[in-house]
């Protein structure tokens, strides 16, 4: 949620509840007006399987999966999530689904438990993009 709000408003808010939201946002990219619809789902709700997660996957055209570099569990769940997404999306039309893995909280390097190299290697092995960012900065 912090990363989504930072993208939408350019502000950082550190505390969030455990709710999902759908945001719409216009942005000009390379002279073209782009309309983003962002379905922001907290990690606790991403853990559920079944129709809710399937609905989210079918709704989306691309995916940004965010983990905390300070939380190994949030990183470890990514391969399963990505395999689930790819099976649901790529199985239908054989097109590669755009997925980006984002390691957040780069500013908390002193609390890091997931290295940048681990993130890059995971993204490479799963054919995803990779970035490390700090929503706070």
UniProtKB/TrEMBL annotation:
Reactions catalysed? GTP + H2O = GDP + phosphate + H(+)
Q: What class of enzyme is it?
A: hydrolase
Q: Which PANTHER family match?
A: RAS-LIKE FAMILY MEMBER 11 (PTHR45704)
Q: Which organism is it from?
A: Dromas ardeola
GO MF:
G protein activity; GTP binding
Q: What is this protein called?
A: small monomeric GTPase
**SMART domains, from UniProt?**
RAB (SM00175), RAS (SM00173)
**PROSITE patterns, sorted:** RAB, RAS
Q: What is its EC number?
A: 3.6.5.2
One Pfam short name = Ras
Q: Which UniProt keywords apply?
A: GTP-binding, Hydrolase, Nucleotide-binding
| Superkingdom, taxonomy of origin | Eukaryota
Q: Can you tell me which family this protein belongs to?
A: Belongs to the small GTPase superfamily. Ras family.
